[in-house]
Amino acid sequence: MANVNTDKFLENNKLYASGEQVHNSAHPGKQPINPAKHVAVVACMDARLDVEDLLGLQTGDAHIIRNAGGVVTDDAIRCLIISHHLLNTNEIILIHHTRCGMLAFTDDLLKAGLEGDPAAEELLGKATGRKFTSCNHSSSTPAQFHAFRGPLEALDSPCNEQQMERLSWDVRRSISRIMNHPWIPTEGPDASTVRGFIYDVDTGKLEEVSYPGPMGTFG
To answer: Do residues 73 and 177 share a domain?
Structure first.
């Protein structure tokens, strides 16, 4: 399976991390609808990630799908299926990052805080460094927040070995969701490649996550 564009973007990232500008922000004029580099990126919505800059993407090169955590949710899968089958992408890049907010809570904790549990409100306030204000209502949606597995840490904690392990677990889970989805081929003549990375928000560098490997536990 071809990874020619992904490998090129990794080279671009080295230039970006060293301070070189590799993304041209000027409007390029009329372009075709299919991404020129046949790439789809799933990345976190964190404000410190400028996906075009850190990969050296130009306007029209790739589909960029963003959400809290860069999680491969049902909606991300929906986007990837459309991206591949209708718009001719065949390389998928997943990007998580250090100091991610998804490390600072659990789904149950956030739901309890939103519903008005005082203990949960206090814990969330300590984790975020701001007063957590409950909505005092329950809701069936969203069904999941997709918080990352493992012991909680304060919001925006400096990167360490445990944090990298937790991030790697979730990158592998996201890769697995794609690799095992029946409508996203990763073998045969219509195959897409799937690779996952952790972006260091302090250095600007990408580190690849091996797959397969540990994905963590619920404990």
So the answer is: yes
